[in-house]
Write a structure and sequence with these properties.
- With 384 residues, this protein is of the alpha/beta class.
- It has a 5-stranded mixed beta sheet with strand order 2-3-4-5-7, covered by helices on one side.
- It starts with 29 loop residues before the first strand and ends with a strand.
- Helices cover 28% and strands 18% of the residues.
- It contains 13 helices and 21 strands.
């Protein structure tokens, strides 16, 4: 599938060892002796270490309750293969993989494994320079797009695994991959609402590639940068400018709920989100009249879709012009960086690098806080 949809928002010290703590065994009957590797923020998966293998349990792959998905990763060949009812068994080393969401692409880049990618649906969406170079060399197969994604072609590529994102129609092909003997681990990163929770899913990919230590190191650097930036903002006790977010679609105003990933980033950046009293992790659906009443005088507008300038935005819906942020030219969109074929880098790199998004927002909300910093994802819309 393409990059996950978002109507608003949407490094590295080597760690020589990681701490393993005893815990209860994962659900189900398994012939496994192992201990849990604790995660910091991610809640949708767990990782257990055994002698020569890892075991991953994904408990939040998509909304609603479901049985956990369980994956066994054989790290050493000379071991007795653990027995159990696994959704997939993956044997290292890995030589070929297929991804189905642009948010997975940076994982390969940061782990130094970009060349493993052999297939992806709709290559035009990818912005990564490393992967675009591989595409130019015809090393990555275009698997189609949307409902036309050719999963039979994916099977023909014989990958060691194909990473599934449940935001699209990928689940319908699980049986196909299972019959073909291709492991299809499900990445549920978008279910995480804490920005660092989504970023921590690089450990999921790291485990599947045999690069756990490197993934752990990368995440630690991202976590440190994020927490340091957030701490500096709140330590200064800056005033919190009021922030509106979202845009109109078919007379409905969509904006992130107060508990969502996007709203948490705004809060961490020291913004006073006008919809903070509306709980929810998904998109709010509000009437224009209600939004105008609540947010007409908000000073900054964050996440105004992919408009090129204020004139175009006003033409798309003249009602935008009644907001003070629009009148003052304080409207920001996340489309500063685009790949050569039009992919928006925010939707590719943003999940992994919330620290960069956070710094962008701090720069917008509190310009004096980061005097030498230039936003990476966000840009202010000019009049024309």
């Amino acid at each position: 599938m393409s990059a996950p949809l978002s109507k608003t928002f949407f490094l590295f010290a080597f760690t020589a060892a990681f701490f393993i703590f005893s815990c209860t065994s994962p659900q189900g009957n398994f012939d496994l002796e192992m201990e849990e590797i604790p995660l910091d923020y991610a809640e949708g998966f767990k990782v257990f270490q055994g002698e020569g293998f890892k075991f991953i349990e994904v408990s939040k792959a998509f909304p609603g309750s479901h049985e956990p998905f369980r994956y066994l990763i054989i790290e050493e060949k000379e071991i007795d293969t653990p027995q159990g009812n696994f959704d997939a068994v993956i044997t290292l080393p890995i030589e070929k993989v297929i991804l189905t969401s642009t948010t997975h692409v940076p994982h390969l880049d940061y782990l130094g494994q970009s060349e493993l990618l052999v297939g992806f649906p709709n290559l035009d969406l990818i912005s990564s320079k490393k992967v675009r170079d591989l595409i130019a060399q015809n090393s990555v197969m275009d698997l189609g797009r949307g409902a036309q994604t050719n999963f039979e072609l994916a099977v023909d590529l014989e990958p060691d695994w194909i990473m599934i994102s449940t935001l699209g129609d990928d689940l319908r092909s699980l049986d196909l991959f299972k019959k073909a003997g291709i492991p299809a681990p499900i990445n549920g990163e978008y279910m995480e609402q804490h920005p660092l929770g989504r970023a921590e899913w690089i450990k999921f990919t790291g485990a599947l590639l045999g690069g756990w230590e490197k993934a752990d190191s990368i995440f630690e650097e991202i976590k440190s940068a994020y927490l340091n930036a957030a701490e500096q903002v709140h330590a200064r006790g800056n005033n919190e400018p009021t922030v509106i977010s979202g845009v109109m679609y078919n007379d409905i105003w969509y904006a992130p709920g107060a508990d969502s990933w996007g709203a948490q980033l705004l809060k961490a950046a020291g913004g006073d989100y006008v919809f903070k009293g509306h709980p929810g992790t998904g998109s709010l659906q509000l009437s224009y009249e209600y939004v105008l009443d609540k947010a007409q005088n908000a000073s900054i507008w964050i996440g105004a879709a992919d408009h090129k300038n204020l004139f175009e935005m006003g033409q798309a819906d003249p009602r935008y012009k009644y907001f003070e942020a629009f009148q003052d030219g304080q409207v920001y969109t996340y489309t500063l960086k685009k790949g050569p074929t039009g992919g928006i880098e925010y939707f590719e790199l943003g999940y992994l690098r919330p620290d960069m998004i956070l710094k962008d927002l701090i720069k917008i909300l509190h310009p004096d806080q980061l005097p030498e910093y230039s936003p990476y994802f966000y840009t202010r819309l000019d009049e024309k």
